[in-house]
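User: Hi! I'm working on a homework problem where we have to compare a predicted structure to a textbook description. Could you give me the structure for the chain below?
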Amino acid sequence: MKNVKGLPVIGPNTGATSLHKSGANNVFWVRTNYDFEVERLVRFADTLGLKRIALAYPDDPFGQAVLVSFRGALANHGLMPVGIASTPNTASLEVEPAARQLAGMQAQVLIMSLAGTMPALHKAYRAAGGAAVCLGLSVSGSASNILQLAQSQSKPIFSVIVPAPNAQRFALVRRYQRDMLASGFDSMSLLSLEGYVDAAVLVEGLRNAGPKVDRESLIAGLESLSDFDLGGVRMRFGKGRREGNTYTDIVTVDANGKLKS
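Assistant: Happy to help. Predicted structure tokens:
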């Protein structure tokens, strides 16, 4: 995310806190960082009185970023991890060793910071006798993952950084659904809603950039979005402030693969 001759970059698809805090003046973060997401999950567990929390993460830069956020969130709540286990990397389906290790920890809550391989780990963990409440980050909530996980009896709970795409109480979601249908798309997802928010931020930044748009004026236009309400989600950018979004929520999955918040 280095400054490539000042080219504005809007909405990179990562929550790695180290990147969010890197100080790149040209990068405007629309996605909430992992610190916020993991804190939301730990707070959810702590509120329910569930203190024995474990983590599954891939042993790669993505997983290491979440591990740092996990340790920080537990420390904020005066907790220690009951256990931590890793898979080889984000793409690896070699999940059984980690599943067996996690099943023996007697955790009450298991945070699975995996992306596409989360359903495989969840299935292996249950098969190994793991009984913890399973929580996932927003990167785990792809449409294909949700459909797979909807078939399981004990479905994971997810953190999200945009509202569920069927949460019609949000004006943002109603507008997104209308525009998707008008464009010929009837499949709604967290990922496409996040992209829709990215595009809305860019358009508003262009509107505020003035009649002559260049890199400098677009950055100024984006900085002017100090309290941009998209319809239930607010972006707060500014001079020296490049993380616009702090929205997080908790959603569940029903038997039909629909998200419920």
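For your comparison, note the following. Residues 190-207 form the longest helix (18 residues). Residues 9-32+167-249 form a domain with the Rossmann fold fold (CATH 3.40.50.2300). Good luck with the assignment!
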